[in-house]
Here is the input.
Amino acid sequence: MTEAPLTYAVLLKGPGAWEPVKVAEAYAAVMKVPFQDASQQLRGHWGIVAESLSEAVAKNLAAKLLSAGLDATILPKNLLEDLPEPLLTCKAEWDDASLHLLPKSGERVTLAWTRLALIATTSYREVIRKTVKGQEGPSIAQKAASLGLSMATGLPINIGGKAREVEKVQETTEPIFFLDLCERKPLRRFRIDFGDFNYACLGSRMGYSSVSNFRALVETIAAKAPSAARNQGTTALLDGKPVHALGYDSLKDLDRECRRLLTLASLRDP
Here is the structure.
């Protein structure tokens, strides 16, 4: 039986914000596709530019990215980190040596600060739909017309009918935040939903806003685990910048960014 040929992935190594135009130009040139198609294919790549390439094509793409000023590397695709399912975590405590997490399903987990490999934050806008009840009846113009006709004819005339109760769907967009904490090998991943977490661990720093409490939580964890890698979202949040403006569309983007960062960490520290 013939073994399947080894395929390669191309990753960006730099920690900074992506330059989508440069990446798309390099990809379009090497893969011989229109720039617009390349831009669409690369949406949400989060630093993993391509997977399942031949070695020659992967080297060509990495060289093209390097010539555009983007630090890139290639590696066999089977060396890309596979992420375990995140354990949704609702409570935390800490001391100088360790972080103690309480997943919603499972027992309390103690994680030494030195074993924290990645602090990854994301935020994006979610559409919130609510069904509300209200009254709907004649418009102001209809009411005025009804009054005029009634005065002219002496008859009770009601244009537009009577007021009635109706249901309407209202849509709003709100930013939501998530934090993934990844432990070094064996890899474990813990996820915090900013709106479903007990912030009592913040003590005197705890406030009334989930967003400000979430920021304080990330700041505390980052200060206690300075050796842990940080994704773009965490860096932006610590710098006081809007995380949702970075282009995250869903948790899939966070997953892909985490795969890249954890893979690069494994290459540095196998």
